[in-house]
UniProtKB/TrEMBL annotation:
Pfam families for this protein: DEP, PH
Organism: Chrysochloris asiatica
Bilayer disposition of the protein: Peripheral membrane protein
Protein name: Pleckstrin-2
Top-level taxon of the source organism: Eukaryota
Keywords: Acetylation, Cell membrane, Cell projection, Cytoplasm, Cytoskeleton, Membrane, Phosphoprotein, Repeat
Keyword Membrane: yes
Length: 356
């Protein structure tokens, strides 16, 4: 089988943009030394042979990639023949881990390049020809700037804000900083000079830390705003379809998992987000643009357990087996979920158990 060339460097779910029709679909990706393979999923398992392969020799990688405003966690690959691939991860950590491994595979023949990846420049000075005003003006630019939008933190909605990690992405993409560490330092300086303001508990808390590099949070839960547009607004009732309380807790864990549907019993990959205080597990459809859950449930009084690995467990439809677990909610709804490895299943079960 051609799937067996060289060892697997990394594997897992990513959301891929289609070539002909630009729709987004979840695929199972396997990274090898010179190729990135991707597979379709049916009934919780990958369909062989691979649906496609991306040859990494001569490939260029862009990360962060800001081509899609509603998909901030993208990696863009451009092959030697100029074919572009857009791949979306479920978290910034996961995106950066994929980008790191893919970059390593692209430069596998040049150890010096790989070594450079490991070295973070600690000394950061703004180039003499770039002023903070220039950066801020570019941030406000209607086409290539940062677009503030309403964001929620702990039940309050803040108008015209942006998240810390998206500012870091933007500074790197616009070549104002070469690494995340540099971008964080630069963002802290922008804050010190009163161009930016922290909004909400998470980012306000970080200001009190003494170290400049830790004052600005490269984090998807920390909110910031342009200093002159700072107005707090609690969202009106009609804007709250999902109880804001459900989504107000800090994120404990997130990732792609397969879930069995309640009515048609078909398996679909969803991005699961586990929050605490209050404890909720929500799931999102990764093929959709809008960032609101398609479902979720409270974990109070729920039970979570691993299912048998040999044979198809009761309640599971189709030939789906391995790495399955089940959550039974307080009102006796059964959720059947499949992780992509035993280790991942244990991590999820442990994390959920701590919140039940």
């Amino acid at each position: 089988m051609e799937d067996d060339e060289g060892g697997v460097l990394k594997e897992g779910f990513l959301v891929k943009r289609g070539h002909i029709v630009h729709n987004w679909k979840v695929r199972w990706f396997i990274l090898r030394q010179n190729t990135l393979l991707y597979y379709k999923l049916e009934g919780g398992r990958k369909v062989t042979p691979p649906k496609g392969r991306i040859l990494l020799d001569g490939c260029t990688i862009t990360c962060p990639c800001l081509d899609y405003e509603n998909r901030p966690l993208l990696i863009k690959l451009k092959t030697r023949t100029s074919t572009e691939y857009f791949l979306e991860a479920c978290s910034r950590e996961e995106r950066d881990a994929w980008a790191f491994e893919i970059t390593g595979a692209i430069h596998a023949g040049q150890p010096g390049k790989v070594q450079q990846l490991h070295i973070l420049k600690n000394s950061f000075k703004l180039p003499p020809h770039i002023s903070l005003n220039l950066i801020v003006n570019k941030m406000h630019d209607s086409s290539g700037g940062i677009r503030p939008s309403p964001n929620m933190e702990q039940g309050s909605t803040y108008k015209k804000t942006f998240i810390g990690s998206s500012l870091v992405d933007w500074l790197i993409s616009n070549s104002f900083a070469a690494s995340r560490l540099e971008a964080v330092t630069l963002a802290s300086v922008l804050m010190e000079e009163n161009f930016l303001r922290p909004v909400g508990a998470r980012s306000m808390g970080a200001i009190r830390s003494g170290d400049l590099a830790e004052q600005f949070l490269d984090d998807s839960t920390a909110l910031y705003t342009f200093a002159e547009s700072y107005k707090k607004k609690i969202s009106s009732k009609e804007e709250i379809n999902l109880s804001t309380v459900e989504l107000s807790g800090p994120v404990v864990k997130q990732g792609y998992l397969a879930k069995q549907g309640h009515k048609r019993k078909n398996w679909k990959v969803r991005r699961f987000v586990l929050r605490k205080d209050p404890a909720f597990l929500h799931y999102y459809d990764p093929s959709k643009e809008e960032n609101r859950p398609v479902g979720g449930f409270s974990l109070r009084g729920s039970l979570v357990s691993a299912l048998e690995d040999n044979g198809v467990p009761t309640g599971v439809k189709g030939n789906v087996q391995g790495n399955l677990f089940k959550v039974i909610t307080k009102d006796d709804t059964h959720y059947y979920i499949q992780a992509s490895s035993k280790a991942e299943r244990s991590e999820w079960i442990e994390a959920i158990k701590q919140l039940t």
